[in-house]
Structures are given as C-alpha cells and as structure tokens.
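Exercise 7.
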Amino acid sequence: MTKPSFTIASEGKVIGRLSLVDQIRDSAKEAIRTLKKYGIETVMITGDNEKTAAAVQKASGVSRYIANCLPENKAMEIQKMNQAYGHVAMCGDGINDTPALAQASVGIAMGAGNDAALETADIVLMKNDLTRIADSVRLSRKMSRIVKMNIAFALTMIVFLLATNFLQFLTMPFGVVGHEGSTILVILNGLRLLRG
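Solution. The predicted structure, written as tokens, is:
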C-alpha cells in the first residue's frame, strides 16, 4: 500500500519526490495464484483509496478489490459475499478487520495482528504466511476425495459380501477375511493424508 509521499525542494524548486510503498510478499502472490488455480476468487477489502487499491491489486493478482471501506463497510461486504457465494473466508490482522472476521464463514487472523482480531478469528496463522491458506484448501480437497473414495469402496464391499452371502458363494471365514481386508485398505488409503 502506498504511504504518504514527500516532495524534496531546494531554493523553491522541486528537485524530487519520495514515496514510501509497502512491498507485497512473494508468499502472498504465490498464495493468491494457487487459490485462483483452485477456482477460488480473492477479493481485497481495504480502507485505502481507489488508486492505492488498484496498484495493490495489480501487484498482488487479487481478482478484485473494494476500496474506501470503514470497518462496518467491510462487515457488510462480507455479508453480501456470504449471500452470493454461500461460504466466505476473511483474512485480516487489524482491529478494523474484526467485524468482518466475525461475519465470515471462516475468519483467519495473522499471528502478528491485533489482539481483537486474534480473538475473533477461527484460525490464526502463526507465521503470517498466506500460503498456509492455499495449503489448507489443497489438503481439505484431498481429504474430501479420500473420504468419498473410502465410503464408496466400503459400501461396494458390503454389497458384494451381502450378495455373496445370499448366493452362498463365500464361506463365513472368507467373508470375514474380505470384510477385515477391506477395512485395512480403507485405513491405508486414509493414511495417504499424512503425506500432505
């Protein structure tokens, strides 16, 4: 975000201008790119003016921005997004983000943030690393796939064992082996989550 600029003059003539700008972390850009790849829209809600917000959007790659927001405006914008998208995660670190964090489906605070934001948020990123959000999305999607796969496999095995029992294709010991073997396979498949 652009900070106030300073003009340097000598003998009544402007000889230079100095502007201070916060640098966007590479990890933030990487997190935004990854979230976009997952089909997640990123929106910056900021109290900064349009010009500054547009510059940050261009540098960071966020999908869109909403500028000139007071804390209550941020909360209202999150409410609108909740209605439009169903679920919204909000990431913030200041006391001005607290109402919006409370309105979001999932509030995420930065570990070095204000105490009020830390208390309001559902999740705290201790290392202030936004790539952790993208990692969480990736891991939760992987978990969802594995759980669905395990349920489908377990139900298929139960149907198979019931059918073979009624048709008397399998004896009881082989049925037990099949059932316990499928349980072990489901557990082993679930352990894939440990690899991240």
